[in-house]
């Protein structure tokens, strides 16, 4: 099967979209951007391929008689099982790396104790892993780094204390090791993992409502479909560092414009708030960009700002929005300088403001900045599509809706659950078009 | 004899000291730092103060003057408050009597202060809001690189080809660093690069206050970072400024010390005034 | 804002220019002229000549020549230091001495140079001026700049206050005010400082010479109306305005320079050639742009290359009008010497009100058949920058052509972020391209 | 009335971003006009004589959420023009019939042109002033400019401005300026009785109230403040300079006071005391206004100082006259006039042995800790060491 790939190398996350010849999305993959861009795009692509396999499973299972009403449950089970499998593998890798790294001067005379402490930590992590992937379980993030990191810290603190090694030491081993693990290219044996996941599911006595043999055969069949990388287009903040030639690179403005148009053909105005930049784009009815504005060099009020706030409060990004939704009033925040986010927060707390209210104020401040950029680009037209990571944040969305209504009247606001992939989607579409227009050849 | 306490409430950590002052003689009783780390700084300060008292075998009632500095204006047990630059100047002179300028580098701000031999602030200059040259930034990067805080200095001093960060903005500078890692720049070179960028700024601060010579004492948390100290010394040499930049192992306490000593000064003065009034 | 690079900049330090640019006779000529003026400055004291410092927009070069004064233009020094990548340190030096980070970097580059011994861009000392001729047009910063210089030099200072065209027109009151200041203040001061008696016929002669050169300059700038354009009216334009905006207006040298230039452009035009750039000739003109705002000098060549790489040619720019709006018809007039100087000062680009500036840009977009407008917004210069975002909107609204906005600085390297600028330019060009394709499809479907 | 009543009234006016007072004033009689003006100086007498209400527009402060205004300005331009544009775009100035933009800097100058484009129905005019201070040169120019403005205002208000009404207006403003000076002098003499945050609000009220009403208010405040007993603190006396255009947030003024400083002179809203002495009433009123501008008006960085030896002496003079112990340079970020002037003034102060510090603000600055710290250290060091 020919596939067309779009990769959006963002400042915080890297996204990939895999598309077939009919412009149908086969798979989406995301990972956090990291020091090795090449690895980040490979991981994202890898994740998109995994996701594509699930699409293929879905297509294949749909052909099996009698599964229709259980299809969603079946795939969800399979996915969870697969993720758990993946998590455990990565955990194993992290543990090995940690133990290797617990050497040198700082550990002189403490190697053994450190090793034992680490083993104890990881044993706990392994033990709690299945619960993380149980049906209905809420995870702090979808990235290994975040899940493993937060659990590691929680578990290491008491163990660090009782072992007399100290928390900082263990944290340091973790910090060192996680980048190493992250920067290793994804391991090859994807199919094996699928099969192991399936095995685990079946061994666990799951009733799939289909004969086990049929399940195995269907999965195997879908795994056998070759996914050929026909053309790749890269975009995003880090696109210039991608090892792609110029024809394989498009500006993120165009990709976001086109991506939003594909998701919602009625789109005329797009707002994208990513990690380090905010873009407002006006597109014509064909998805062609008519105008755009971006924030200047200051990173104030972008997604990373929320990241700093979350770090400061030691909670997950997912939790910021819901907390702000609890507010009874909104505290006026004038500075959205990312660096001083923590100071601003402490300042307000010291003045006796409630966390929820401060949160509401922070979200409003971010959206106010975005409103300015929108205004600069020519305002908000109907329909209005909000994309980028921050579109996942309900409090940000609420403020945006309110301000758009106040300033521009009624507008249809589109937010797609997959909005974070907008840029990658546009890139994939460009990739498909390039081939249509006669371009050939893979990357670099 | 006067017992005084100095409590320096910072964004990164809380520094508490106790002093016994008798005439011109000062005796340092207790010192402690407590990292704030997402706790309520004011509550933490109260705890820290009580623990310091316990270490010295004292009770709150035994202390004649509790002086706060930093963000401690609203602590309810303080007798008086002095502003940071006033206290750092005094603390620096206590630690290093030959110092004529103080470079205070804390978690968020950097300040250069020119002082006279008695610890009087002559002029000062603070970093402006945008600051990639802050301790917080360095801390974040160190974590990103998997380097412990106490290792930063050592690594930085091993650099052979440091690479400076360009941006003014810490967020964008972070991306710079990520780029560097992707280009296989080693951790020592990155850290040294940051140290050099910070030194550039700090040197600029020092120069704008003008007229410095002799010794410059670094105070605040980053004075403990000998990589920064080394970078600072290099920078001053490169820029041909004939000063000796040094740090003291108790530099982080400069603010708290200054507060305590000013507290003692005020206490004695007030006592004199009372005595006068009584007479 | 202001002014012009002038060709001395052309041979940028060898390291920055791996490939020697093509040299045409006009370039050689200009280079000699600039070098000659720096020579005059360097030897002024030894030769017993008096020196005047003055600004580019609204400069009174012809008048200065009447008093045999050597003309030193601080802005040009700042530009030359920018092109030579020296301005960064100079600015930092000025900041260390108490100048704010927020203010115009031209001023700081100049003050920094002074603080470091006043060594000019060519490595030779700049003499202390005998008079600061503060003819200030289109920007308030000039006034502070010379107050700051006066503090250092403690020399005679004379101000020519040029009122702003707030209502978009020159009134009799404004003209009379300027003429009166010239008569009562400026001329007597210059006579006193120089010891030379003012001779109005001498002034007339210089003005006549100016008008000749102005004619050829306008012809050159307007040659960009052809397709492909034989010149780049922004990056190249910076060189073309050199002589006329500075110490050479009114000299036969300038007239000769523009004659040569016109010949060369005519040849390119006849051959259907595009502009000459440091990267070589631009062979395929893909985009035609109008640019508002000054260039960036610290990365001048890299900046230009970003345009070159995309096949973008600037066909008209407002920056080439800061030292006079000759293309709108103004010529120095020997028959009304002082009035014509007044008229000249009043008409400089940034002394025109905002609606007037927008009208000019709109006219350029139409007359030069440009694809769109690019605003290079300069951090230093409020005179240029405050209001540019409205200009951008208005132009888009009136012409339907896309506009883009980038932010850099004239001479402060800290504010030139290549990645950022490139990203925006790339996005902009891709957008124009995509739009054009869309329009092409529609047009093909319609008539063609 | 007690000071707190008066201050409460002023606070209400200060916080009202919809300009209800001016709206009501205008609605009270058909045909009335309101003419807005920006800092730092316009000839308010002319507006008044035309029968219109002069209304100072001093930006949006720290309570206005700026959405559209930011779309017109780059991040490196000060705040006041963007919040002013916001006030315009959101319709808060829709009742204003004319706007005057003084010749203070390139930003406000260009704003005059923007206003013409954005609000074509409002009369928008740039008010140029001479930088040549000779009667026959700059004076002549200014007389003509003022006459031009007088004509325009007359047309706007539907009746020509005659000399008699102009003289009457000058007299009212002379009285108002006398009272303003008196309040300033009172504060300098007893700063604990007239805290700067109050004096500031009182002066801000003068930007929106009718002049007669404001004069009355000033008189009442003086009387009330004199009568009230307030504790005197061991504060340091300082002069603030650099804040003549974009205004600092009120909390900043309070923070400076809290950190141990008494403000004994400042350059907030110079328009209300621009003419240092009475404008003469006899003779040609326009010429009188022009001459007072040339020879008897405040100095600030937007005005050229022809004489090098006099540069900056106005500040030294203020320090001496008000017995100040130091100067705080407090300028809006990105304010070219104030920031370029600063080093020159600092050199003059240094030469006269006056200590000073400097920082920047924006009208919506939120974090006061650095301000308190700097002002506090300044006050500490003057206090702890002055006796030693
Ligand atoms: N679930 C979420 N809830 C709230 N915010 C989120 C969530 N996921 C991501 N974000 C925000 O989105 C930002 C990343 O957005 P993204 O569009 O991926 O940026 P980029 O393309 O620059 O990497 C993060 O900085 C974060 O603030
Ligand atoms: N041992 C150390 N080595 C290097 N840096 C340190 C050390 N201890 C503390 N720091 C740095 O000092 C900063 C805190 O400095 P401090 O002066 O206490 O700041 P504040 O007063 O603002 O809290 C922290 O951000 C940390 O980066
Ligand atoms: S440090 Fe803050 S204000 Fe400065 S550029 Fe970064 S985000 Fe913007
Ligand atoms: S502000 Fe602009 S016009 Fe004025 S001196 Fe600076 S660069 Fe030139
Ligand atoms: S604050 Fe300064 S720069 Fe801004 S408008 Fe006012 S005078 Fe101009």
Describe the structure in brief:
Chain B is α/β, with parallel strands linked by helices. In chain B, 42% of the residues lie in helices and 24% in strands.
Give your account of this protein's structure.
The complex is a heterotetramer of chains A (about 450), B (about 280), C (about 450) and D (about 400). Chain A is an alpha/beta fold and about 450 residues long. Chain A has a domain at about 265-415: ATPase, nucleotide binding domain (Nucleotidyltransferase, domain 5), CATH 3.30.420. Helices cover about 55% and strands about 10% of the residues of chain A. Chain A has helices at about 35-65, 70-100, 110-130, 145-165, 165-180, 190-205, 210-225, 250-265, 305-315, 315-325, 340-350, 355-375, 395-410, 420-435; strands spanning about 1-10, 15-20, 25-30, 230-235, 270-275, 280-285, 290-295, 385, 415. In chain A, a hairpin with a 5-residue loop joins strand 6 and strand 7. Chain B folds into two domains: about 1-85 and about 255-280, ATPase, nucleotide binding domain (Nucleotidyltransferase, domain 5); about 95-245, Nucleotidyltransferase, domain 5 (2-Layer Sandwich), CATH 3.30.420.40. Chain B is built from eight helices and ten strands. In chain B, helix 6 (about 185-210) packs across helix 7. The longest helix of chain B is centred in the last third of the chain and has 25 residues, at about 255-280. By secondary structure, chain C is an alpha/beta fold. Chain C contains 17 helices and ten strands. In chain C, the strands form three sheets. Chain C has a four-stranded parallel beta sheet, sandwiched between helices. A four-stranded parallel beta sheet of chain C has the order 8-7-9-10, sandwiched between helices. In chain C, helix 4 (about 85-95) packs across helix 5. The longest helix of chain C has 29 residues, at about 420-445. The N and C termini of chain C lie far apart (about 45 Å). By secondary structure, chain D is α/β, with parallel strands linked by helices. Chain D has 14 helices and eight strands. Chain D has helices at about 5-15, 20-30, 45-50, 80-90, 105-120, 135-155, 165-190, 195-210, 210-225, 250-260, 285-295, 315-320, 335-350, 370-385; strands at about 35, 55, 100, 125, 235-240, 260-265, 325-330, 355-360. The mean pLDDT of chain D is about 95. Classes of the chains: A alpha/beta (about 450), B alpha/beta (about 280), C alpha/beta (about 450), D alpha/beta (about 400). At the C-D interface, helix 6, strand 4, helix 7, helix 14 and helix 15 of C face helix 5, strand 4, helix 6 and helix 13 of D. The complex binds adenosine-5'-diphosphate (2 copies) and iron/sulfur cluster (3 copies). One iron/sulfur cluster (SF4) binds near residues 104, 106 and 384 of chain C. The site of one adenosine-5'-diphosphate has 21 residues of chain B, from helix 3.
């Amino acid at each position: 099967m020919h596939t067309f790939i779009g990769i959006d190398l963002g400042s915080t996350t890297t996204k990939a979209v895999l598309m077939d010849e009919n412009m149908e999305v086969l798979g989406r993959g995301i990972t956090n951007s990291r020091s090795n861009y090449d690895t980040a795009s490979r991981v994202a692509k890898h994740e998109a391929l995994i996701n594509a396999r699930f699409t293929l499973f879905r297509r294949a299972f749909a052909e099996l008689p009698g599964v229709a009403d259980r299809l969603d449950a079946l795939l969800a089970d399979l996915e969870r099982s697969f993720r758990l499998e993946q998590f455990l593998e990565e955990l194993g890798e992290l543990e090995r790396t940690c133990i290797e790294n617990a050497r040198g001067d700082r550990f002189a005379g403490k190697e053994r104790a450190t090793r034992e402490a680490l083993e104890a930590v990881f044993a706990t992590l392994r033990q709690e892993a299945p619960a993380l992937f149980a049906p209905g379980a809420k995870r702090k993030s979808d990235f290994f780094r975040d899940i493993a990191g937060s659990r590691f810290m929680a578990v290491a603190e008491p163990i660090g204390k009782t072992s007399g090694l100290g928390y900082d030491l263990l944290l340091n081993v973790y910090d060192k090791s996680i980048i190493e693990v992250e920067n290793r290219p994804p391991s090859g044996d994807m199919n094996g993992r699928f099969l192991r996941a399936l095995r685990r599911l079946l061994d666990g006595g799951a009733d799939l409502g289909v004969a086990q043999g049929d399940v195995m055969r269907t999965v195997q069949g879908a795994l056998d479909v070759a996914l050929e990388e026909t053309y790749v287009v890269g975009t995003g903040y880090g696109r210039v560092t991608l090892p792609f030639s110029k024809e394989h690179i498009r500006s993120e403005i165009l990709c976001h414009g086109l991506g939003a148009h594909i998701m919602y053909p009625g789109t005329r105005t797009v707002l994208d708030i990513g990690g380090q930049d905010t873009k407002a784009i006006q597109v014509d009815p064909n998805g062609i960009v008519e105008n755009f504005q971006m924030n200047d060099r200051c990173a104030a009020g972008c997604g990373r700002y929320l990241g700093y706030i979350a770090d400061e409060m030691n909670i997950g990004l997912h939790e910021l929005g819901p907390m702000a939704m609890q507010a009874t009033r909104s505290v006026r925040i004038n500075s959205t300088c990312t660096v001083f986010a923590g100071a601003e927060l402490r300042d307000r707390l010291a003045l006796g403001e409630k966390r929820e209210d401060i949160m509401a104020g922070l979200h409003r401040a971010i959206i106010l900045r975005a409103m300015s950029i929108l205004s600069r680009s020519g305002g908000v037209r109907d329909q209005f599509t909000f994309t980028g990571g921050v579109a996942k944040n309900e409090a940000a969305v609420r403020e945006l809706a309110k301000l758009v209504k106040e300033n521009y009247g009624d507008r249809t606001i589109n937010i797609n659950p997959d909005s974070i992939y907008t840029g990658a989607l546009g890139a994939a579409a460009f990739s498909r078009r390039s081939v249509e227009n006669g371009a050939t050849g893979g990357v670099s | 004899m006067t017992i005084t306490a100095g409590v320096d409430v910072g964004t990164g950590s809380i520094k508490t000291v106790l002093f016994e002052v008798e005439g011109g003689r000062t005796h340092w009783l207790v010192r402690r730092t407590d990292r704030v780390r997402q706790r309520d700084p004011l509550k933490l300060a109260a705890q820290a103060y009580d623990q310091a008292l316990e270490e010295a075998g004292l009770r709150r009632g035994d202390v004649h003057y509790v002086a706060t500095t930093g963000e401690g204006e609203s602590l309810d047990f303080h007798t008086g408050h002095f502003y940071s630059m006033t206290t750092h100047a005094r603390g620096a002179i206590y630690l290093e009597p030959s110092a004529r300028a103080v470079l205070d580098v804390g978690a968020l701000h950097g300040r250069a202060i020119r002082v006279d031999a008695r610890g009087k602030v002559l002029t000062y200059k603070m970093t402006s809001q945008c600051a990639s040259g802050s301790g917080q930034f360095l801390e974040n990067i160190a974590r990103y690189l998997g380097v412990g805080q106490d290792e930063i200095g050592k690594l930085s001093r091993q650099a052979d080809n440091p690479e400076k960060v360009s941006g003014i903005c810490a967020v964008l500078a972070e991306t710079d660093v990520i780029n560097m890692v992707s280009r296989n720049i080693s951790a020592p070179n990155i850290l040294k690069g940051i140290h050099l960028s910070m030194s550039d700024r700090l040197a600029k601060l020092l120069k704008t206050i003008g007229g410095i010579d002799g010794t410059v004492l670094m105070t605040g948390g980053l004075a403990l970072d000998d990589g920064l100290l080394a970078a600072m010394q290099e920078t001053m040499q490169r820029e041909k400024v004939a000063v000796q930049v040094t740090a003291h192992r108790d530099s982080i306490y400069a603010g708290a010390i200054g507060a305590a000593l000013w507290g003692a000064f005020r206490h004695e003065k007030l006592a004199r005034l009372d005595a006068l009034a009584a007479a | 804002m202001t002014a012009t690079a002038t060709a001395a900049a052309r041979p940028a330090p060898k390291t920055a220019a791996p490939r020697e640019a093509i040299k045409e006779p006009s370039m050689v000529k200009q280079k000699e002229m600039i070098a000659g003026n720096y020579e005059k400055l360097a030897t002024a004291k030894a030769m017993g000549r008096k020196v005047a410092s003055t600004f580019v927009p609204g400069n009174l070069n012809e008048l200065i020549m009447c008093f045999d004064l050597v003309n030193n233009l601080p802005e040009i020094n700042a530009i030359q230091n920018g092109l030579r990548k020296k301005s960064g340190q100079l600015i930092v030096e000025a900041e260390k001495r108490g100048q704010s980070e927020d203010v115009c970097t031209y001023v700081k580059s100049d003050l920094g140079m002074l603080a470091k011994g006043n060594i000019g861009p060519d490595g030779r000392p700049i003499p202390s001026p005998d008079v600061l001729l503060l003819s200030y047009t289109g920007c308030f910063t000039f006034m502070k700049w010379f107050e700051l210089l006066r503090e250092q030099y403690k020399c005679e200072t004379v101000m020519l206050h040029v009122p702003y065209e707030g209502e978009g027109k020159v009134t009799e009151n404004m003209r009379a005010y300027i003429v009166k200041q010239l008569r009562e203040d400026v001329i007597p001061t210059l006579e006193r400082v120089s010891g030379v008696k003012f001779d109005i016929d001498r002034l007339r002669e210089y003005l006549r010479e100016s008008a000749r050169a102005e004619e050829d300059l306008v012809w050159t700038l307007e040659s960009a109306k052809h397709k492909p354009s034989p010149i780049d009216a922004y990056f190249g334009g910076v060189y073309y305005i050199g002589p006329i905006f500075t110490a050479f207006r009114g000299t036969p040298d300038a007239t000769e320079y523009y004659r040569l230039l016109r010949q060369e452009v005519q040849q390119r035009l006849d051959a259907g050639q595009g502009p000459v750039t440091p990267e070589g000739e631009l062979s395929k003109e893909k985009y035609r742009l109008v640019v508002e705002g000054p260039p960036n000098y610290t990365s001048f060549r890299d900046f230009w290359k970003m345009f070159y790489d995309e096949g973008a040619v600037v066909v008209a720019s407002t920056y080439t009008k800061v030292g006079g709006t000759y293309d709108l018809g103004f010529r120095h007039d020997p028959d009304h010497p002082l009035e014509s100087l007044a008229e000249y000062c009043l008409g400089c680009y940034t002394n025109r009100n905002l609606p007037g500036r927008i009208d000019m840009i709109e006219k350029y977009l139409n007359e030069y058949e440009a694809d769109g407008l690019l605003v290079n917004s300069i951090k230093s210069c409020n005179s240029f920058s405050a209001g540019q975002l409205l200009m951008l909107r208005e132009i888009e609204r009136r012409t339907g052509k896309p506009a883009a906005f980038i932010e850099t600085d004239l001479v402060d390297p800290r504010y030139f972020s290549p990645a950022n600028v490139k990203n925006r330019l790339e996005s902009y060009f891709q957008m124009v391209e995509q739009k054009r394709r869309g329009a092409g499809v529609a047009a093909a479907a319609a008539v063609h | 009335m007690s000071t707190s009543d008066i201050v409460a009234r002023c606070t209400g006016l200060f916080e009202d971003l919809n300009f209800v007072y001016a709206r009501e004033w205008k609605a009270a009689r058909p045909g009335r006009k309101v003419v807005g003006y920006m800092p730092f100086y316009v000839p308010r007498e002319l507006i008044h004589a035309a029968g219109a209400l002069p209304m100072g527009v001093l930006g949006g402060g720290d309570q206005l959420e700026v959405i559209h205004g930011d779309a017109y300005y780059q991040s490196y331009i000060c705040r006041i023009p963007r919040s002013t544009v916001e006030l315009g775009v959101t319709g808060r100035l829709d009742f204003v019939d004319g706007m005057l933009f003084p010749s203070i800097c390139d930003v406000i100058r260009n704003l005059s042109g923007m206003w013409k484009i954005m609000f074509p129905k409002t009369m928008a005019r740039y008010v140029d002033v001479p930088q040549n201070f000779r009667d026959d040169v700059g004076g002549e120019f200014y007389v003509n400019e003022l006459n031009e403005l007088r004509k325009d205002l007359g047309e706007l208000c539907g009746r020509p401005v005659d000399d008699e009404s102009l003289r009457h207006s000058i007299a009212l403003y002379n009285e108002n300026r006398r009272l303003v000076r008196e309040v300033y002098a009172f504060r300098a003499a007893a700063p604990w009785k007239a805290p700067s945050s109050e004096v500031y609000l009182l002066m801000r009220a003068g930007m929106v109230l009718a002049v007669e009403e404001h004069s009355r208010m000033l008189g009442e405040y003086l009387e009330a403040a004199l009568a009230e007993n307030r504790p005197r603190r061991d504060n340091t006396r300082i002069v603030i300079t650099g804040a003549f255009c974009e205004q600092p947030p009120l909390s900043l003024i309070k923070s400076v006071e809290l950190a141990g400083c008494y403000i004994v002179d400042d350059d907030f809203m110079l328009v209300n005391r621009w003419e240092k002495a009475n404008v003469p009433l006899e003779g040609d009123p326009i010429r009188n206004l022009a001459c007072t501008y040339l020879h008897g008006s405040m100095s600030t960085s937007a005005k050229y100082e022809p004489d090098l030896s006099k540069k900056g002496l106005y500040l030294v003079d203020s320090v001496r006259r008000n017995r100040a112990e130091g100067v705080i340079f407090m300028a809006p970020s990105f304010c070219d006039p104030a920031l370029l002037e600063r080093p020159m003034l600092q050199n003059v102060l240094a030469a006269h042995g006056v200590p000073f510090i400097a920082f920047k603000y924006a009208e919506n600055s939120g974090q006061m800790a650095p301000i308190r710290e700097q002002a506090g250290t300044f006050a500490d060091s003057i206090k702890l060491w002055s006796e030693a």
